[in-house]
Amino acid sequence: MMTMEIKRIRKLNNLFVVDLNDEISLSLPESVFVRHNLYKGKELGEEDLLDIRKDGERQIAIDFALKKLRNRKTTWEIKDLLFKEGIDEDAILAAVDYLQDYGFLNDREYAELYARDKRNLNGYGPVKIRYLLKQKGVDDELIADALEHFTQDDEIELVEKIVHKKYVRNRNLSKEKTKIIRFLLSRGFEYSAIKAVLSRWP
Which residue range or ranges hold the RecX third three-helical domain (predicted)? Predict the structure, then answer.
């Protein structure tokens, strides 16, 4: 089995560059460099090189993803960001497994928090929330679970609050029903909930 000796080690942009010869070098995060106990003069076999390279790609993917996760992301969003960064597919999958195992990525939790915030803070209905979560690559079953507690009674109550705040206080509601319906549909409310609220006014 062919072996190569580490000829030089240098630091470049927060990575350790390990030069084996004029043609082969490895750019590694510090954690990988330490984990494999690399030093000048150490000899590495072909399998060692492959393992170190894969570990380095995986760690780079994890580090990049963790920076992006300062703002919550779905699994699909993280995969897409890593892919656009040009990271190897195997490294992406390994990084995602790591992030899920350690609780950094959790689509179920994300969907529940997202649905709650969009409902309470943005005043969105279930149709729009479902659409937005789908756009973020969340599984249909997880979306359904996240919206499970958004009952029709809750939806009607929220529609009523929006209508009262936006229209009833200042305008003649009966003259603007078409406009109101369009607005509420754009907010993602079911027509049945809108109709239930507007039917209370002539």
Answer: 153-198
AA letter at 52: I
The class that CATH gives domain 4-102 is: mainly alpha
Encode pLDDT of 49-107 as tens digits.
Answer: 899 999 999 999 999 999 888 888 999 999 999 999 999 999 999 999 999 999 999 99
**What type of residue sits at position 45?**
G
Q: What is the DSSP letter of 164?
A: I
Tell me the backbone φ, ψ of residue 8, rounded to 5 degrees.
-155, 150
Nearest to 115 by CA among 94, 87, 90, 136: 136
Report in angstroms the alpha-carbon separations of 69 from 15, 86, 98, 117: 21, 18, 13, 18
* Distance separating alpha carbons of residues 196 and 186, to the nearest angstrom: 17
Read off φ and ψ for residue 87, nearest 5 degrees. Answer: -80, 140
Q: Where do the DSSP E strands lie in the chain?
A: 3-5, 8-12, 15-19, 25-28, 43-45
Tokens 């942009």 belong to 13
Distances (CA, A) of 156 to 130, 152, 199: 17, 6, 12
